[in-house]
Request: fold
Amino acid sequence: MSLRLGDIAPDFSAETTQGHINFHEWLGDSWGMLFSHPADFTPVCTTELGKTALLKGDFDKKGVKVIAISVDSLESHNRWVPDIEGVNGVKMNFPIIADPDKTVAEMYDMIHPNSSEKATVRSVFIIGPDKRIKLMLTYPASTGRNFQELLRVIDSLQLTAQYAVATPADWKDGDDAIVLPSISTADAIEKFPKGVREVKPYLRYTPQPNK
Ligand code: BEZ
Reply:
């Protein structure tokens, strides 16, 4: 069964490079980012995991716990970690899930047989504190992800979870947000004391409410 936005992120227990975890317990009340990579000892994955380790402080500031997965064994992950650290000049500071029997990969529909029967594609799941899936992205093995974009999208998810706004194209933290179409302009003026700028009756901006 495929997962949809708003579904509860499936729970599982697994071995990781930082010990055994139960996923929901590990998430606790935090946001989470679960991301798959096709295989250990591959070039793009080595850069992605290093980049995530370098940006871990930024994920922490947003209250997001990060965790990677591939269908390799724990022994393989542990042999690969020194390469990731050496190439990227960083200590691995988040867990990588070992999933050699593909239990988690199948739960999350991370194996796309038209790409590969054996390996996961580059899936990203961002999960809210309510354990529900807020965002899913799928990249092919040949395209490394943009981790600044993942941080940007987390800003939008966290803002729109809290306020009756949406974020426009290319929005970044600090930019004006869009008032939800379901709110009348009269109500918006009350709700957003920093002001409402009407471009069209259906396109109204307000300064970012939590800044
Ligand atoms: C990589 O992670 O470098 C990779 C994995 C599979 C296919 C292409 C690239």
